[in-house]
Design goal:
This protein is an alpha/beta fold and about 325 residues long. The protein has 9 helices and 14 strands. α1 packs across α8, α4 packs parallel to α5 (about 105-115) and α5 (about 105-115) packs antiparallel against α9.
Length: about 325
């Protein structure tokens, strides 16, 4: 199996707790380089995960000709700059969601990826999950008939003010951090963009939305609602994840967490009763790294396509405009 030499730009919590452990499990990934602006943290990451190279700046990592692909877990405000610089350096890029603060910037990044001949994929790891794929296949088979309504919820603890999620200058807030999961899940399952967007939010003193609920209306009268928020006990790592999809012939629901691994369940309810389906789900972050790696070495197409990223980015733009959050 061909391995891709990966570099990681930054020492963010999601890199340490989620993506790098997934990269370590990926059979086609070589943890080659780590870069950051805090030498002690960079050294700690190198010691903990076994990176071959450690750099004190992002520029040094991007200048390394052996780095083939870069993972970017930086704050939302830094995505555009460093995704662009990585691609201009000829690196393939996996960037944390949301890819950019606005659809216009996402479109510019996608155009730059095409210009530089590199792959660019937004890091929605859960979309690689066998659970997500199994539910989508149920819908495509017509298990619950024609879809009428879907709801998606993602609610977590709030955080202390040191956390970038809680600050306007780093484009914090629940729509950017959590709502993008809800909208992507809805668009993925329904397979189209909404015709109408309605939403309302509760804002903090710092100017970020801490709770947002929305209603999306699709062609043929299909509807979807979402709830996202950072309103549970502070720094307690509490969360609520759930979705339901209702059709003319039944419903599908699950309370599995986004990016959860293990033996997960979803429930199908039809006129014949309820059926509990179990799915074995490995590390989602491993799956996304392996998939982009195969794009590089074997010519696969990114599972999370640029087209899908743009659909979700446009939907988020519309929600942010409706609630009055100007993050552009």
């Amino acid at each position: 199996m061909s391995k891709v030499k990966w570099g990681v730009l930054g020492t963010a919590g999601i890199a340490e707790g989620c993506t790098i452990p997934g990269m370590m499990e990926a059979g086609n990934c070589e943890l080659y380089a780590i870069a950051g602006r805090n030498p002690e943290k960079v050294q700690a990451f190198q010691d903990k995960f076994g990176f071959e190279k450690a750099y004190g700046s992002y520029e040094e990592l991007l200048a390394d000709p052996l780095v083939q692909a870069v993972y970017i877990p930086l704050p939302n405000t830094l995505h555009y700059e460093w995704v662009m610089k990585a691609m201009e350096a000829g690196k393939h890029v996996l960037c944390e969601k949301p890819l950019a603060p606005s659809a216009q910037q996402a479109e510019e990044l996608i155009a730059a990826a095409q210009k530089n001949g590199v792959f660019l994929m937004e890091a929605f790891a859960y979309l690689h999950s066998p659970l997500t794929k199994a539910v989508k296949e149920e819908l495509e088979r017509g298990t619950i008939g024609e879809i009428l309504y879907m709801e998606s919820a993602f609610i977590t603890s709030d955080y202390n003010m040191k956390n970038i999620r809680m600050r306007k200058e780093t484009l914090g807030g629940c729509t950017y951090d959590l709502g993008c999961y809800n909208t992507s899940q809805i668009l993925w399952m329904l397979g189209e963009e909404p015709e109408k967007v309605q939403a309302v939010s509760d804002f903090s003193e710092q100017g970020i939305d801490v709770f947002t609920t929305g209603l999306l209306t699709f062609s043929g009268g299909k509807r979807a609602s979402f709830q996202c928020g950072m309103v549970l006990k502070t720094d307690a790592d509490k969360r609520i994840d759930r979705f339901q999809i209702h059709g003319t012939g039944g419903s599908i629901r699950s309370d599995a967490e986004f990016n959860q691994k293990g033996t997960l369940e979803y429930v199908i309810c039809t006129k014949n009763g309820e059926a509990v389906k179990k799915v074995e789900v490995p590390h989602n972050y491993r799956l996304e790294v392996e998939q982009l790696g195969r794009c590089i070495t074997d010519g696969e197409t990114p599972w999370v396509t640029n087209e899908f990223t743009m659909k979700n980015a446009r939907t988020l733009d519309r929600i942010l405009e409706v609630i009055g959050y100007d993050g552009k």
